[in-house]
Amino acid sequence: MGKIPLGISQCLMGERVRYDGSHKRNHYLMDVLAEVVEFHPVCPEVAIGLGIPRKPIRLVIKGGETRVRGIENPDLDVTGALVAHAEIVAQQMPDICGYVFIQNSPSCGVFGVKRYLPNGNPIDREGRGAYARRFMELMPLLPVEEAGRLNDAGLRENFLTRVFAYYDFKTHIAPAPTAKKLIEFYSRYKYQVMAHHVPSYFAIGRYLSNLAARDIQKSSEEFFQLFMDALKHHATRKGNTNAMMHLRGYLKEVLGTQDKQELSQLIDSYKAGHVPLVVPLTLLKHHLIKLDNPYLKSQSFWAPHPEYLGLRNHIIED
Ligand code: SF4
Question: What is the reported pTM?
Fold first, then answer.
């Protein structure tokens, strides 16, 4: 597998593009994730000609609309330029499989960016950067996260699960979809989706059972939307436990009493938050692989991302 293309706020790469000439290099992204992804950096404020250093800007609510305006020069309004640049970049980078933005930026922030009244008083933290907002409208299924939130083990794992699944679909299915390929693809992700969201697991199954009379291109797009929406739900300890219990069912007639007890104890310990997912999953996989069942062996649930990233070695909050 080649490196996965990912968009990134340029200052996260350690490049001095911020308004004050500084950077926000992110150790995890640059020293760990860069092993498996290829970053495509964008600094929208530099790209629209604001320069380095530059006067700071912020989100201002005026006439019910959120605009990006200069702090020292409130007449400066760069909203339109940032939106237009998002449209250019979305066209230039159609193959990216995710985007890591930086938090608290009136251009790049995704969640809870501070907004102000025209008189300079802060009003709330409900804003989204103008560039990020437009980019997300243009690529609504693209996995997107803020660098700061990647410090949370659960959010980090969810984001990267979505990135790898997105890449898998875009590489192997989207270029030439067929009904058979869609069904085989979903067959590999069944337990993963079950861990994320049981209603989606059933809804996608129903959708794929009725493909015959439909246009395959449209079906592929609709399936992808259902699939990515399902993975947006976090795989909680409860969800992962449910998937493992279903997989354990295959071992009912195979394992002896002692092995069954050992496996159940580890799954219970995981559910209670005493051990990370990798612990019961390793034992479950150890037993199931011996069945030599191609369907079970192909499950993405075993390793939705490279194991050396260690994304399942943490106890996640439920
Ligand atoms: S937050 Fe966005 S606009 Fe600001 S310096 Fe970083 S990449 Fe550039």
Answer: 0.96
